[in-house]
Amino acid sequence: MIIKQDFLTHPNCFETSRQGNKIDTIVLHSMDGFYQGTIDWFKNPQTVVSAHYLISKDGQLLQMLKDEWVGYHVGIYEINLKSIGIEMEDEKKREEWVYPQAEIKSLHLLVDHLCAKYKIPKDKDHILLHKNLSPDRIDPVGKFDIKWVLV
Ligand SMILES: [Zn+2]
Fold first, then answer.
1. How many domains does the chain have?
2. How would you label 58-80 residue by residue, b for 16+ Cβ within 10 Å and e otherwise?
């Protein structure tokens, strides 16, 4: 697994201290569209949201926040303080969107790596979907299945 790094530098979208909170949660998202567009958007100094990792449709992995930083990927600050956010590329916000195998494989490897590193239990209480946390969100979209990463 190769993880490229391109860390965000503008201060509107993350904090460098977790205020003593341990990482014990992973939150899965899908982008509002494409990989490069999301990278550019996160880098825009006006942007006030962020996530730790991005995964492209063809399985590329990019880290934009250090694990020990707090990202603004969920609208619930208490969850941001203790979680790592992963954004998956998608093509459309419709039910028929099918995640490519390369993307699923990279997600699986990344989740395994993070769970091992931070001793996060691989279950539905610790690996969360954004849409299950915020009723106004629909991501991950399409035919995403949490079972892909729980095995
Ligand atoms: Zn999300």
1. 1
2. ebbbbbbbeeebbbbbbeeeebb
